[in-house]
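ASSEMBLY PREDICTION REQUEST
Request ID: AP-0331
Submitted by: J.K., bench scientist
Number of chains: two
Total residues: 235
Priority: normal
Notes: Please return the full assembly, not individual chains.
Input sequences:
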Amino acid sequence: MAAGVAMTPRLRRYLELERLMLILDEEGASGADTLRDLMDPIWYSLSEEERRVLDDRTIGRIKSMEEIRVPAGTRLFGPAPAPVTHRALPKNPISGWASAA
Amino acid sequence: MSTVLLGRNRFVECGSILAYKGVPLLRVIFDPLRLELTTPDALPSGRAVHVDQKGKSPEDRVRIVSSPRSFAIFWDEDALAVATLFDAGTAHLKLDLRPLGITIYDDADGLHIGQNVFSGNVVDRSAVAISLAD
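STATUS: Completed
Returned structure:
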């Protein structure tokens, strides 16, 4: 952060929760207010200087979402599929196809 | 604003659609529309593909077909990725990397990645929309 405030573990935790809360708020999710209330104890545990710096910020609209993370297991990569065998068209009329079906 | 539609998912303003171990695997670039496909080099199938602004490889098996509103990458006669421009900022993507031995493709159910199926997701302004890692 700017303004010479050290990034303490407590402040980092607050900012991480705040980011989640802002994403929920941006999406209109009902959990934003609940999370905001749960953040109160952390807010009051911050120093006066930290709270002053946080209050003086201008927060832009949060649009980013986390990427989707997928484990690339052993089944993601495999051998190449077998080549397709091209069969020639029969030269003579097909007989008995109805009974075979 | 650029939007990519893939397997009933919507990717808005994303740097890359897929990345493997932090390296972009598939990117959709607008104006003009084009695709960049970079598979890992050490695939079990031995069919690594590179398509970017510099060119394509392997030269004898990868084919690019492009028009002002579409861009397609083929492996021999199999379509790997086909992007079609809906409007200036929206592209529809069909993807099937199975000819390369990579289980990533889309169908009516969604986007299949290995055993996972993704459908109805919106990823907005992420550097990488879907990140693959061990």
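REVIEWER COMMENTS: Strands of chain A lie at 68-71.
SIGN-OFF: pending second reviewer
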